[in-house]
Amino acid sequence: MRARDVPVPSILLILFALSVVVTQAPFFRARRLISDAGGGRATACTKDAATCGCDYSDGKWVRSRSTDAMPYGEDCPFLDPGFRCMQNGRNDSSFRHWRWQPRRGSCHLPKFNATDMLERSRNGRIVFVGDSIGRNQWESMLCMLAASTPAGSRIYEQFGKPLSRHKGYLSMVFADYNLSVEYYRAPMLVMVDRLPPASDGAIKRAIRLDALPWHAARWAGADVLILNTGHWWNLHKTIKSGNYFTVGDRFNMTTNIKEAFRRSLQTVKDWALTNARLSKSSYIFFRSYSPSHYGNETWDTGGSCVEQWDPLTLITSESDWHEHLWINTMISSAAQRMRRRHGMNKDAVFLNITYMTGMRGDGHPSRHREPETPSDAPEDCSHWCLPGVPDTWNQMMYGHLVSMGFDIRSIKR
């Protein structure tokens, strides 16, 4: 049939169908990465932003107005040297000048109000548990809050530990608010034991899938608890490094990593459901996977992100998403099962930052690592420059907390 022989209604129908495909392609791609990765739903649909049709995880990066001030600077005393990208030689600040805009017009992501967050958190504890990217987010929160404290306010480490410490935990106290903002290093969330060298040296550590780290007893007293994991759940960090999975005292040398990850999340879920010290007023966030951006190669074979300058406008290929899709699916499922905990009136929120973060290959330290890093060291395309992308994660978390009515001042202890 020639084009001029096609009935007008058919032509209009075809044009309409094409317009839907073209205009909605980024949306459906986003939803596929969000909803499928979230077990069929993006975030907790309780009395929070999601109930109102607001999905913070689905949107786009837009350039900030020049009048928008950064929440803090690299002179913040709580930043790791490796996250101070400008001080380490990066000569552009473009990565700082983007803000996240949720896609739906009715969905407003509130600006992070540090003074309000400090007041709402007065006499409380905000606890971050996870890997070094979780520490990235913790340092971001510290700096965002500290920037709004009154001049002369005292902020100190509760136990006198140096901030350079990367094992165990750190607890920063905002004295004027009687608030502690804490970080607990637990890259796999479950316990990892170093073992005496075996005769053949094959087994170096036991990843105990049925036990939490020794400092988990301190997590339970948190008013806001932010959990993250994922980057250590791969062959390189486990089996190839001599780290084998155990349940009880029995090693399983052939455990599938995905099954081990599922078992570890079950341990976290069971802890949340049964721990008597987990307050009825606690707010739990399970943050999704933060994508790395090693172009062409892996982190240890020359992978690079140094030439990435601006955010992507949309994700054009899903070939690189499979690894964290299964991780996100399991994390979201664990968060969903933690909801409506026995006697508790708040839900566990799946804080989905994967899609928005996947667009930000421009925000990593790359070659601009901490001082004295060898010139031939791999680039850092996993962690984030600060100020930078993790500030938006904390902004999203703040938006959820406000919408859920978080305010420790109103809680009767």
TrEMBL record:
It holds the Pfam family PMR5N. It is found in: Golgi apparatus membrane. Its main location: Golgi. Residues 109-398 form the Trichome birefringence-like C-terminal domain. It is a single-pass type II membrane protein. Residues 53-104 form the Trichome birefringence-like N-terminal domain. Keywords: Disulfide bond, Glycoprotein, Golgi apparatus, Membrane, Signal, Signal-anchor, Transferase, Transmembrane, Transmembrane helix. Residues 1-24 form the signal peptide. This is Trichome birefringence-like N-terminal domain-containing protein. Belongs to the PC-esterase family. TBL subfamily. It comes from the Eukaryota. It comes from Triticum urartu (Red wild einkorn). GO terms for cellular component: Golgi membrane. GO terms for molecular function: xylan O-acetyltransferase activity.
